[in-house]
Amino acid sequence: MGEKLEEGAKELNQYHKQIAKVREMVCGMLQSMDAQSEEVEMQIRTVKSACPRHDMTLFERNPTEEA
Predict the structure, then answer these.
(1) Cα(18)–Cα(6) distance, rounded to whole angstroms?
(2) What is the pLDDT of residue 51?
(3) DSSP states of 5-31 as a string?
(4) Is 60 helix (H, G, I), strand (E, B) or coil?
(5) Which residue from 14, 59, 50 is spatially nearest to 22, judged by alpha carbons?
(6) Burial 36-63 (b: 16+ CB within 10 A, else e)
(7) Which one, of 60, 61, 17, lies nearest residue 9 by Cα?
(8) Tens digit of pLDDT for each residue in 8-65?
(9) Taking the CA of residue 23 as centre, how many other CA atoms within 13 Å lie in the half-sphere pointing to its CB?
């Protein structure tokens, strides 16, 4: 019976190692996604600051063209 306990303990140890690897992978992926989203956010801020503020003249309709 001691042999079965030892086998079970080894199996649990393997599961523990696999879970630790998965957690490490997930953590790395989240860090990478966070860094990418931060970079995109900075690019959006740059574009917004380069655009004229509240200049919507390109989107205004010409009243004489209304159908």
Answers:
(1) 19
(2) 79
(3) HHHHHHHHHHHHHHHHHHHHHHHHHHH
(4) coil
(5) 14
(6) eeeeeeeeeeeeeeeeeeeeeeeeeeee
(7) 17
(8) 999 999 999 999 999 999 999 999 999 999 999 999 999 888 876 655 566 666 666 6
(9) 6
Q: Would you give the DSSP letter of residue 53?
A: T
Residue whose tokens read 């919507």: 56
Whether this model's pTM surpasses 0.90: no
**Lookup: tokens for 28:** 């790395």
Residue type, 7: E
C-alpha dihedral over 43, 48, 49, 53, to 10 degrees?
180
AA identity, residue 54: H
> Rounded distance, CA 28 to CA 53, Å?
38
Residues, the chain, total? 67
